Amino acid sequence: MPPDTNGSRMTTPPGDGSASDGAEPAPAWTPPDSAPPSADVSAPPTQAPPWTTPPSAGPSMSGPPVGVRRRTNRFAIVAIVTGVLGLVLFAVGFAVAALVQTGRRGEKGRGLAIGGLAASLVWVAAIAAVVTVGPLSSGSSGPGVRADGRVAVTAMRPGDCFSELVETPDGMFAKPLPCTTPHRGELSASTELSDVPYPGVREARDRAWTACRERTEFLERSRYGEDLELHVAPPDEDAWKTGDRTVRCLMRYTGSGLLPSALDQTIETRTQYTSQLSPGDCIKEWGEYDDQPLIPCTKEHEYEMLGFSTLHGGEYPGDDKLEQKALDACTDLAREVWGGDPPSDIDIAFAGPDRFRWEQQMRTVVCLVTGRDGPLKRSVVPH
Length: 383
Prior knowledge:
This protein is 26% helix and 20% strand. By secondary structure, it is of the alpha+beta class. A hairpin with a 2-residue loop joins strand 4 and strand 5 (171-177). Residues 159-367 form the Septum formation-related domain. Residues 1-66 are annotated as: Disordered.
């Protein structure tokens, strides 16, 4: 039975738990010849898997956890709005007031207040950069738009699309385009390398390639996968020394014509075993068996995977206490993922063990998020 996502009580879904140093270009990314055996879900298992529908006496999910439906402090809302608009003095004042009141009253909004302060700092830094550095020259590798319209990939974000991609001694540059128009490629992912002393140009590049292959592996399921070429922009030594170890992973389409949409929208619906779900996987609706139907997060979906949590304890605590333990565990995970309270337009959901699975030492909880006012239409989980 699918969970009720809007009432005061929601039922648990079933279950328990590139390079700038002039080196030769790296080979094109190629999907594996065949899918792993674990991906064969053409028929339901002959024996009930550990994630099937729970019995009627199994745990259910209560309303949203404490902290999700708390009132949002009004000063926090004003702080983030004024911060985004560049009204720095107002933003700082409202943010400080919000931080004080949220601490006293137990209201939501601490993250918004901090966001208002962060936005103010961005405005101050941007103004200072313009005053002290001035506009970028055509040979600059820093963030911003060059005279020829190209942008340093270090100024791009995952999901940004482009029409051209060039590599120069100063870095890698692309000409941005909306993903809704025909384009040549996309910055598909970014990730941080380990916090170690700068390992040298070659080693940094090798680590960047390894990280980007892992982060873009899912694009092998795109109908354009065979013609996607991976380009990697690792951090240089200067960036590394300032603490910026971000790697940008770009996919350039080498086939005929252009890409018509964002790459995640070119992936066909597939299924994945519940135990193999990853944070950020979007689930169309909770599957009746152990395999879950995944779709691009830009399409309507019922759930998004948050992560796994393991419960501890001796004897079975009872349905109500188990429900609360699972909900508390997923709420803690959500706060860890977002660095505070999760967005106000989502609820926490989970699939947890019943008595039988608990006694069999099967204590894994699948933590999910679902839309508070209807299906999700975008990815909401940071990953």
